[in-house]
Design goal:
By secondary structure, the protein is an alpha/beta fold. The chain contains 5 helices and 5 strands.
Length: about 120
């Protein structure tokens, strides 16, 4: 299973979500994952409906358990991990998941996305 992890600011629009998702190669994803406090955001719900993908809500504890190559002090302070997109993708993909695409960002900086896949090894 390939999962697109997504992070975004409250002011994000659909265009920014699309841009980050596509830049990460999101068309291969079978689900979208994000922090549980963002999973019900209307803009993300609309984006998931547009892509016909389920949204997986990841707890803060699950996010904090992930080691990410990208390190954002702001995200670390809020979620206990360096990248919400990377951590959500890894947590949702399951044990032994690996990043396929590290965090990508929309040009306006309001959306991020990363892809992870469960390792079969």
């Amino acid at each position: 299973m390939i999962v697109a992890g997504m992070g975004f600011r409250a002011s994000v629009d659909l265009a920014s979500l699309r841009e980050a998702f596509l830049a990460a190669g999101g068309t291969r994803a079978s689900a979208i994952a994000t922090a549980e406090d963002k999973a019900q955001a209307p803009v993300l719900q609309a984006f998931a409906a547009e892509r016909q993908l389920p949204i997986l809500a990841i707890t803060t504890a699950e996010l904090a358990a992930q080691t990410t190559p990208t390190q954002s002090p702001r995200i670390n302070a809020r979620y206990g991990t360096g990248s919400l997109a990377e951590a959500a993708a890894l947590a949702a993909a399951g044990p032994k998941a690996r990043l396929l695409t590290p965090r990508t960002q929309s040009q306006d900086g309001k959306a991020t996305a990363a892809l992870a896949e469960r390792s079969l090894a």
